[in-house]
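G.,

No rush on this.
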Amino acid sequence: MNARNLALATVAFAITFWAWNLIGPLSSSYSSMLNLSASQTSLLVATPVIVGSLGRIPAGVLTDKFGGRLMFAIVCFLTIVPVLFVGWSNSYGPLLFWAFLLGIGGTSFAVGVPFVNSWYEPARRGFATGVFGAGMGGTALSALFTPRLVDWLGRPATHVLLAVVLAAMGVVMLMFSRNAPEWRPANEPALPRIRDALKLRATWQGAFLYAVAFGGFVAFSTYLPTVLHNVYDFAQSDAGLRTAGFSIAGVLARPLGGTLSDRVGPISVLVTSFAGTAVLAVVLAFDPPAEWPAGISFVLMAFFVGLGTGGVFALLAKLVEPARVGTVTGLVGAAGGLGGYFPPLVMGVMWSIFDDYTVGYLLLALTAVAALLYTMALRRTAHAQPA
């Protein structure tokens, strides 16, 4: 039963994440169609991240109260509306508005972590959250298939198709998923729970680390097609194919990060993640040539940030009691999503000013070094030692 619910949650997460990342793979076509500047394009790409980030806070609280089964279905059904209107919008203002609401799909992460956590004993929660986190592969599916489906079917029909898939997934979750037998609804008011979660040191630790790790993954997954188009002059479908490779590497690394955290401790996994991220950000700052030097660098970057995303929630699973996991996950997940909101905006500005992304990559390297130093400090803190 636990394996079935983990599998269903992972598939639902992947589909809603596909919906969340519908705009990034089509960024070059939106730029051409609407005659957008680099800053306007980066704002459009980043906008879904806002609701997908901040919306995780209420999503996590509501999951503690109503359970993951119902909340997964609600997220699937609500995401249908912006998916359809993004496909039907042909001017910048309406497209930006519906892109904002498209972020509802990104809140599913805060639903899934407490849902799968409740099905597994503490020693296996790193594995469970890591496998569930592989649903980040929805960004790879979007990068790989969305441009091709648009070429074959057209943009409106592609969005209608994904809306149908979301509706079907919502029905499947209602019919076949179950909350864990030990799960009990949290009946206390939401605001005191959020306030109590904010008093936990683990919440702030996880928020910072996840903002760097998952924020890096989201930023690259959404903005990489634009980078590949601007720097290497790849066509939209070719850029999408290479972005899918990046996302797949991150997706595969996430359960590995969770599993390794169960064995060697999440702190060691996070140190490896941030060290690798810092080094590769410096490498990318020199604009390595396509195909292989740049491709390998991007894939390795995805691998290291993917390890980190698995490590953060393995750490939280050891530090936070199950009754608070949903609320803490919402807060930490919001920080992770916001970590992915600002880099595309910064990169867009850098491209507009300097006609390259060197400064943006160096800022990423400095951020990763800060996260590395903070993680190493956690190693010396007694309460952060792996259980």
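When you get to it, here's the other one too:
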Amino acid sequence: MYKQLASDKENIEVLLESVKQLTTQHFQQVETIPTSAKPQEVKNYHLPEEGIGAEAVLAQFKTDYQQLMCGSSGPRYWGYVTGGATPASVIGDWLATTFDQNTQSVQGRGDVSAIMEKETIQLLLDFLNLPKTFFGGFVTGATMSNFTCLGVARQWIGKNQGYDIALDGLQKPVQIVTGMPHSSVIKGIAMLGMGSTNIHKIPLLDGREAIDVEKLEDFLKQNASDDVIVLSSAGTVNSVDFDDLKAIATLKETYNFWWHIDAAFGGMVACVEDKKHFVEGWEKADSITVDCHKWFNIPYDSAVFFIQEKHQKRQIETFQNSNAPYLGNPIEDFSYLNFLPENSRRFRALPVWFSLLAYGKKGYQEIVQRNIDVAQKLTNYIETSEKFELVAPTRVNVVCFKVVGLSQEKQDEFLQTLNSRRKIFITPSVYLEQSCFRAAFVNWQTTEKDIVIAIEELEETHHQYI
């Protein structure tokens, strides 16, 4: 064995103790870690002939890169709907790496991680109040979850039209309708060869990011002889607006279409009593996307797909490893190899399993409710301020606002100045063609004191800039 490998194996306890101390330090100091990194240039690296060993590499990381890690897992990083990692999920993620399982089969071919994955899916369905008629699995993020669901939808369309898209490829255009899709949905449609320009946009409700269901029904009536994929939003990326899922569920009783819901982070409202009406009816969907690295506060990369079990035949047709006979019959001998895009993947269920069981329904309900409350606190400040104004109503946990009286160019400069202070981090967005700032609250550590800091930063930046 190469000398550095042998040495690292012999000293693994010391090495992991050093990593544990670094992890502990991060959790203890995350509230004070700057929310953005200073600009850096990429170094011109050359791989050495002789390795220096893990201990020396760790020391080099501390010297060269640790100070560049921004506080994206901290309580005042509100960009991109990025959650933090709960302590339990970090434990699960560490162990997922340690045990390094081949997460595929439940038949005991090497490990039982797929059994834990199916059990974790059951925990998620229970938490989200979804029926056990859904089957699910773990993928990298919302993009791959949407891709997986839409891949099965595409196969369903083809079979309805009398041919097998997985075997023969697309032969006819696929009808896809939506209101305000996330970019990852459009990306998935493009990757599946259905063509992003084939998406038919249904008008939105006035002043909303939600689809006009009456207009949707008009389209379905006019295209009653066609097979259609309907894409819904359960929490739009800009303002967390929701399509009327209950009304669309009713349309399913009359019209035959595949219904996919992108609930990447908005689906979490299912656990909050006064918000769960937003997802009423979603149990009738054919497929649902939920992201775990957002409001569930699981480390990147982690998301789940939920697809009704009645579609499993189409799912197998889409993803089966037909050229690997040693894997057995995909229906009789279950393996995730035949149900999702990836053949090789890490044990993503374990961090979720740890975190769900560690904090339970009440723990996650508290996180979600607290995020909603702090979003409202920031909203209250903006509504009473003469310096800032809301651009969109705060329905759940995202606040869209801008500076009063500034041009678009100056708005951008203001945001850059605000973020460069490195106390809070928010991102630019566009709400109904109006540019704005967007603060997304999903972190398990965010409290009202962070909103106090944010208000101070907004006031000081305004004074500095204006």
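Residues 101-345 form a domain with the Aspartate Aminotransferase; domain 2 fold (CATH 3.40.640.10). The mean pLDDT is 94.

Enjoy the weekend,
O.
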